[in-house]
Amino acid sequence: MRGPHNIWRVIRVGSTFERTGAMKFLLKRLNVPFSLRIIARIIGLPFKPLGHRGDPLQPPLLRAITALGPAYIKFGQLLSTRPDIVGDEIASELLVLQDSLPAFKKKTAIDIIEAELVPKSVKLLNHYRNLRLPHH
Fold first, then answer.
1. pTM of structure
2. Least buried of 40, 41, 108, 123, by fewest C-beta within 10 Å?
3. Helices (DSSP H) in the chain: which residue ranges?
4. What does the alpha-carbon distance between residue 44 and residue 131 come to, in Å, rounded to a whole number?
């Protein structure tokens, strides 16, 4: 039942980008036609309160990415090395993700890993525990 979870994840990312101002920034910098920018903003507006706030001291794009967590930060780091894909302005803003981020607690990392891996490993173990092997 991953579908609803993934839909929620997309809504959370979009709403975080809308809430932090990153959506407006990206749509403009990526030269999205004005009419599509308006449509994207109208669609995102009702979901805006569902997004993470992020650190208001950061620029909108960094604020959104850091609010979404380590996987998004890693993706931002990757994109910062590809101005041919995202453009020079966005790539230079993402460069901050390379080495200027505050560290997060080890417990936070462990909690994230356990939340993602433990339920899957338990499900996998239960599957093999219930599996009947042929007798020889």
1. 0.70
2. 123
3. 2-20, 22-29, 34-44, 60-68, 70-80, 83-86, 88-94, 96-99, 106-129
4. 46
Give the integer Cα–Cα distance in Å for 5 and 95. Answer: 30
Residues of the chain under the 70 pLDDT cut? 1-2, 100-102, 104, 131-136
Structural domain span for residue 6: 2-101
Q: Which of 55, 52, 39 is nearest to 13 (CA)?
A: 52
Judge whether 114 lies within some domain.
no
Whether 16 contacts 52, CB under 8 Å: yes
* Structural domain contains residue 113: no
Rounded percentage of the chain residues whose pLDDT exceeds 90: 49
User: What pLDDT does residue 23 have?
Assistant: 93
Between vectors from CA 86 to CA 103 and to CA 53, what angle results, nearest 5°?
Answer: 45
136 domain-assigned: no
- Which pLDDT score, from 0 to 100, does residue 68 have? 93
**Domain total for the chain?**
1
50 secondary structure, DSSP code: G
